[in-house]
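TASK: fixed-backbone design
INPUT:
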């Protein structure tokens, strides 16, 4: 039998159908209109609210250095757990950390290594002197500077670094040092020896180097304000972005 069509759309059948709904459905087919769909929720977004809360505590601590140490540690532990969970389902966590690391970071707070925590009976505090780590994410170079007075570092280490997106681990190897501006190369393991002897680094770094491995940080976060990580010795640390140092590095190509 002949079944007339209107521009490819079946003529409305009034039998056993709601004429208005049938018209809407067929009009949608004619003009290729899809029914409204529920927006997809980005994987890992369920962690964002708690991540923001923990980060907020750490930003305040970095700015004021007045937050209770135990509160800071709790926020670091919470952020570490949340970021680890989110990273399992969202690859952008690692990419954001790598992008965020570019620049200069002043150490604000550290629990010290697990061994150090035992020695000082678990006491934790804000870092008492100026220590700044600078990351060049293009050339993959890193510096670590220690200041005792003024704007000239007493000691400055230089070397390459690498980033593992899967584990968010930063490995580094200081190959040169400048003492009061005088720069010279370091032998293999030299930086770890100096760090262990002076307390600027951990004994764990020296042990890693003796096994042919590199010192490392398991990075937790890095954004426009703060960075957080767990060191190879087990300690947690909080850094604040140092804009003055970033401007200085931009004006001095030989900073690295």
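OUTPUT:
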């Amino acid at each position: 039998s002949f079944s007339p069509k209107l521009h490819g759309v079946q003529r409305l059948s009034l039998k056993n159908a709601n004429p208005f709904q049938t018209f809407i459905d067929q009009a949608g087919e004619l003009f290729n209109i899809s029914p409204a769909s529920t927006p997809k929720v980005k994987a890992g977004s369920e962690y964002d609210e708690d991540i923001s809360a923990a980060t907020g505590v750490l930003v305040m601590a970095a700015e004021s250095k007045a937050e209770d140490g135990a509160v800071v540690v709790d926020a670091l532990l919470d952020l570490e757990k949340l970021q680890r969970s989110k990273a399992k389902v969202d690859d952008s966590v690692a990419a954001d950390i790598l992008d965020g690391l570019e620049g200069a970071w002043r150490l604000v707070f550290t629990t010290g290594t697990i061994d150090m925590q035992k020695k000082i009976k678990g006491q934790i505090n804000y870092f008492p002197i100026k220590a700044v780590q600078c990351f060049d994410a293009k050339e993959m170079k890193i510096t670590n500077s220690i200041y005792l007075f003024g704007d000239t570092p007493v000691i400055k280490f230089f070397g390459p670094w690498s980033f593992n997106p899967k584990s968010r681990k930063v490995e580094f190897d200081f190959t040169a040092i400048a003492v009061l501006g005088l720069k010279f190369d370091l032998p293999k393991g030299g930086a770890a020896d100096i760090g262990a002897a002076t307390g600027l680094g951990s004994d764990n770094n020296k042990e890693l180097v003796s096994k042919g491995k590199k010192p490392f940080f398991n990075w937790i976060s890095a954004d426009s304000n703060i960075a957080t990580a767990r060191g190879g010795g087990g300690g947690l640390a909080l850094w604040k972005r140092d804009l003055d140092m970033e401007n200085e590095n931009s004006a001095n190509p030989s900073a690295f």
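COMMENT: Confidence is low (pLDDT under 50) at residues 1-15.
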